[in-house]
Specification:
Two copies of one chain form a homodimer. With about 350 residues, chain A is α+β, with helices and mostly antiparallel strands. The first copy, chain A, has helices spanning about 30-45, 85-100, 120-135, 190-200, 215-225, 240-250, 265-275, 295-305, and strands spanning about 55-60, 65-70, 80, 80-85, 100-115, 140-145, 155-165, 180-185, 230-235, 255-260, 290, 315-320, 325-330, 335-340. The radius of gyration of chain A is 21 Å and the shape is globular. Chain A starts with about 30 loop residues before the first helix and ends in a 12-residue tail after the last strand.
Chain lengths: ~350, ~350
Amino acid sequence: MKSREPFALACPVPLSQYERVVLAHGGGGRLMHQLIEGMFRPAFATAEPALQHDGAILDPVGRRVAFTTDSYVVQPLFFPGGDIGRLAVLGTVNDLAMCGARPRWLSCSLILEEGFPMADLWTIVQSMAETVREVDVRLVTGDTKVVNRGKGDGVFINTAGVGILEHDLVIGPQSLRPGDACLLSGDLGRHGVAVLNAREDLGLQTDLQSDLASLVPPVLRLLEAGLEIHCLRDLTRGGLAAALVELASSSGLEISIQEAAVPVREEVRSACELLGLDPLLMANEGRFVAFLPPSQAARALEILRAEEVGRDAVLVGKVGAEKNGTVVVESPLGGRRIVDLPAGEQLPRIC
Amino acid sequence: MKSREPFALACPVPLSQYERVVLAHGGGGRLMHQLIEGMFRPAFATAEPALQHDGAILDPVGRRVAFTTDSYVVQPLFFPGGDIGRLAVLGTVNDLAMCGARPRWLSCSLILEEGFPMADLWTIVQSMAETVREVDVRLVTGDTKVVNRGKGDGVFINTAGVGILEHDLVIGPQSLRPGDACLLSGDLGRHGVAVLNAREDLGLQTDLQSDLASLVPPVLRLLEAGLEIHCLRDLTRGGLAAALVELASSSGLEISIQEAAVPVREEVRSACELLGLDPLLMANEGRFVAFLPPSQAARALEILRAEEVGRDAVLVGKVGAEKNGTVVVESPLGGRRIVDLPAGEQLPRIC
């Protein structure tokens, strides 16, 4: 993370007057105006007119664009390695990257609970602003609502994003082919364990941080190298297992992975053993899988490993010829077990 | 509203098993998959792959596009003349129309409270689907989160939208010119009074319905007629007063309106008098103001009045030459009062 310096000014909305969010901050009147002009605009150091108007006007693109949205309800709002603001920017930017797009424009819609400390809101807004700069996107339009005390949970954030496809590939499960290599960009489960430890006060003696990170650089590098990417998917709720099950099910093909090849840090492994959780199902916020022809796997790994976020990238599996739509985990001793979707997340509200 | 017939099938998610939303419905696992495939996809009668994937790919446009977002937290969820689902589609579509865009693509992100009745969710999803068809947009990507009981309020909905500008006008407060006519598309305050009456159980003897409606047809008709639209603004939170104050403030020009020209139904007027509220500040969800050269006002009114939603359109005011950024209401007797933004909405959670 970059320094917070440019944002180290005191929160410009007079905290003495409003230390906490009140319903009128979402009412469309003077207080909402004050929040937008006094906090959001300085934080994003932007003159975007759409922060106050009905929408943003984007320049013509002339190429395909990707469009995505996610709402973020993570608890706690601040966790080791990130916070809900940074997550709300990176989560949506990462979804655009998974479409093979260069993220360009974001919207941000806040649902604040009456009574939420204004200082915490300021910290979150600063974090969003910092992250928006870091990943080089523009936050162009937004919305703020306030709900009554006890009808929300501090803050929920929705971001939607628009990005540009600068290539002609069709990236998605429909492009998976038998024989495709499956690359995994790094170790699993740190986001899930870090959030769980922070929320449940498990007292795990660990300084484990969430893996929360932008996946834009590695994806753009892969595309710029002209590699024939067939499919990309980030590993969020439900972890690697859920991502692969969805892809196998959508494509109708079998995907197999080598259990021994999956990188899991010792701290994550012990925490999972202690709590009866499966690292394959643990949430991540800075990990993805990439599928491409096996002949290009070595070059792709090289590119991924040159990026900080892909340092531990590995070849983890492949797409099989069988049309059974299942995911198979192969153990070092040659055992094969079929992975099914869990009913829910092992841990709710991880993102 | 159109008939509900095409959606009159029973909710396809087995209600016997899950009569209420559980946390796992937002967990990224089997239950979330069941909700998407069993409820959302049939309701929207769509094969959009992005309902399950990371984002939607939109075809190249080659023109400017508008991008907007809003979260909807209205209470009650069902009110005379609409519900949160219909509001979430029309509110965002209307914001695109105010940018002068033809709405094309929507995202939808749900934040559900654990324990929310599945049957109510189904009703809301049906209403969204029906409205999406009615206004001819595509819901292309979405997200579902579930928060713990007591940490939400039934359902919050975020929609973001992308629309296409099929003209070269610059529509916004920066295009306002002294002398511009200000047209108002219809009577004020029905949404606010209808929601208030439903929520607070005021027992007003009225069958007053929200004015909730699509503003797309009248806006497209104005544009297709080649009129030189300078600015459009829908009147939501804060009503006509807040909209005009924002425009006057952004443009630095004075906007004056004739109080006697503002259409307010008798039922709304009495309710406001009874409750000490001001119709100029009441929320609307199917009303807008349009600014254009005075020579084109008569033709624009003719076009607006040909549409059901613009039947009661009137010339309500004008942009003055004074550079004071204020809004002035002129009474029939010649009095002039300056309108300021209220601190908040008279009524919270109106949208």
